[in-house]
Amino acid sequence: LDVPVCELPFSSPQCTFYARDKQWLMRFAEGELDICEPYGIGVIFEGEKPLCLENLELSSEC
User: What is the pLDDT along the chain (62 residues), one digit of tens a residue?
Assistant: First the structure.
């Protein structure tokens, strides 16, 4: 997205880093989009590069 960070429709970021792995997860616990309910969305990164967006609404727990 070519949007300033302050204008993204997501909030309450939480980061998870994995030992011995270059990939990490940034979970946005809240947001204005329907996909953000009930657990938020996750963005998987490798280093600084975003790889994919995870829909967490079907997760059993977060």
Answer: 566 767 778 888 999 999 989 999 999 988 888 888 888 899 999 998 989 989 888 776 55
Sheet with 23-31, side-by-side order of all strands: 10-17, 23-31, 41-46, 49-55
Q: How far apart are CA 25 and CA 40, in angstroms?
A: 12
Domain ranges of the chain: 5-55
Tokens for 1, please give them: 């997205």
First vs last C-alpha separation in the chain: 25
Q: Which residues of 12-46 are buried (b: 16+ CB within 10 A; e: fewer)?
A: eeeeeeeeeeeeeeebbbebeeeebeebbbbbebe
Q: What is the value of pTM for the model shown?
A: 0.74
